[in-house]
Amino acid sequence: AELPLDGRNWAQLINLQAGVSNNNNANQGSGQFINGSRGAYNNFLLDGGDLNDPVVPSGSAAGVTGAFTGSAPGINAVSVDAVEEFRVITAGATAEFGRNSGAQINVITKSGTNNLHGTLFHFLRNRNLDARSFFDLNLAFQSNGRAIAPPFVQNNFGGTAGGPIKKDRTFFFASYEGFRQRQGISVVNFIPSPNTIAAVKRQNAALGAIFESVFTGPFSVAPPADLSPDAIIARNSPVVTPQSLVRSNSFDQNAFSVKIDQQISPSSRFSGRYAFFNNNAGPGTVAGTGLPATGVGFTNRVHNLVLSETHSFSPTKLNEFRATFERNGVNNSFDPAPQALLDAGKLRSGAFAGQPYGDPFTPNGVPTLDLGYNLPELGYTVTSPNVRFSNTYQLSDSFSMTRGRMTLKFGGEIRRIQDNSTFSFLVRPNAQWASGGALTIFQPGAPISFLTQNLYLTPSTSERGFRITEWGPYVQTTTRLTRNLTIEAGLRYEYLGRASEVNGFLSNAFLAPGGKPLLGTSLIANGLTGLNQVRFFTIGRGRPQGLFQPDKNNFAPRLGGAWTRGLTTLRASYGVYYDRIFDNVLGNARNSPPFVVVLTTGGVPFGSSVAGPDPFTTDIPIGPTTVNPSLVFPRTQRWTFSVQRQLEKNTLFEVAYVGADGANLVRTIQPNFGGGFPAPYRPANVDVPTGVANSVDNFRPLVLATFSTRDSSASSSYHSLQVSLRHRFAQGLAAQFNYTWSHAIDDGSGEIVTGAPLASVSNLLPAHNANGSIALPTLANINQVRASGGLSPFTTDADAARYFVQNFVGGPQYGAERGNADFDLRHATVLNFLYDLPFGAGHTLGGSTHGLAGWLVSGWQTNGILRFQTGTAFSLIAGVDVNGNGVVNDRASLLSGDLGKLFNASFGKNGDRRYLINNQGAVLGVSPTPEIIGSMLSRNVLFSPGIINVDFSMFKNTHIPVGKEGLNLQFRAEAFNLFNHTNFGGPVTNIASSQFGVVSSTQVLGRQVQLGLKLIF
Question: Where are the domains of the chain?
Answer without folding.
Answer: 194-237, 838-869+945-1016
